[in-house]
Amino acid sequence: MTSAQVKQAQSGEEAVQDGEGYHRGLGARQIQMIAIGGAIGTGLFLGAGKGISKAGPSLILAYAVAGFVIFLIMRALGELLMYRPVSGSFSEYAREFIGPFAGFVTGWTYWLFWVVTGITEVTAAAAYMTYWFDIPQWVSALIFTVVLYAANLISVKLFGELEFWFSMVKVTAIIGMILICAGILTIGFSDAGDTASMTHLWSDGGFFPHGVGNTLMTLQMVMFAFLAVELVGVTAGESKDPKTVLPRAINTVPWRIAVFYVGALIMILSVVPWTSFHAGASPFVVAFEKMGLPAGAGIVNFVVLTAALSSCNSGMYSTGRMLRDLALNNQGPQFFTKLTRSGTPLVGTTFSAALMLVGVWINYQWPGKAFDYVVSFATISGMWAWIVILVCQIRYRAKSDRGELPKSEFRAPGAPFASWFALAFIAMVIVLMGIDKDARVSLYCAPLWGLILGVSYLVLKRRNPEAAAFNRR
Known about the structure:
With 473 residues, the chain is mainly α. The protein is 71% helix and 0% strand. The protein contains 21 helices and no strands. The protein has helices spanning 3-11, 13-20, 28-38, 42-45, 48-55, 59-83, 89-97, 100-129, 137-154, 156-186, 200-203, 211-217, 219-225, 242-251, 253-271, 283-290, 296-328, 346-365, 369-401, 417-435, 441-463. Helix 7 runs antiparallel to helix 8, helix 8 (100-129) crosses helix 9 (137-154) and helix 9 crosses helix 10. The longest helix has 33 residues, at 296-328. It is globular. The termini are close together.
């Protein structure tokens, strides 16, 4: 790597224009909301009910601990991004610091993660529409997919704007809930005013009502809720000022988790006893009902609709970039490299959107076990990206400390020990997944997908030896 290449890679602007061709259309406002929205999804609005019923108030601690680990992962990613901000960052870093095969696996796995996630989320969004309108699910799913696909092809700025407003809805809903709960605790209005008390956090069976073991078992569920927080890394190549904007977005992770997860759960469980919640019901809906606010169900339905559309929108964005990154490195079909005049990956986004439509049709026709198994794979594939980020950061830090690579301007605190701790935590979560019969299916798909990728890579390497070479762009 020449000194000129190092300067170009660090500056980011030239690398994006000459090597990648993307337009820097994402401003600070949009990056911040993408970072915030990536940490808030249906895992909180819908999935937290199961966690509360299983762990009680101690779920708050589970979110706090997992949130700390997520912060370590994001700081590790931040160090890599400031070293070399590129679109499709995970596979690029895997290719450089682990090897070409790791880049191949990471790129295709993260692509599949978002395709599967997009399929489930657009289907869920169509189901949420039936709350207000008596229309076939496939009609809503088709409309949502086409609209988001078109928005992603028009420009990256429009994608960012959509994501900004999707995230704004989620943030407003949570802050609104927190303020309502605070008012009930202090003023005592609503049906829950007479019984609301912070003592609910420890008086109804204790802080660990079902034991520490059950709290540990919720960690897998909690980590899944944070999937997509790393999406801000994919936006690096299209940020107007990545050196300033990305560190700010990453440094907000602790307070985002503290407010939107820990804070929201503390307030809800103080107003409504944890014994009122159960799996399959949104804790927000239950809380609104207990407060005597029946309109809450409609409000939460709108919020989870935007959360699903936000996830699908992110899927459209990231899949096209991942496919193009693979193609630029000779690890995918070359037609995926084509960009529109506005700098969006035309073929990759179109191909991914088409698969999402096929998935919606499959889910409509055969909503059985086979589809559930495919969906469950999304969880383990999303965590693979976190593992790659941490391993790459550990190897990059070692090289930069030896003077072989320039030091990042945004070094991860406590590294490499903090990164090893985060890896150990993820390993523990994977073990817990294997113990839990409901989550175990996520692990069954991984070896099969690994075998498919291994065979595909061998065939690709034989046909095109350049696929096994790392050429920094």
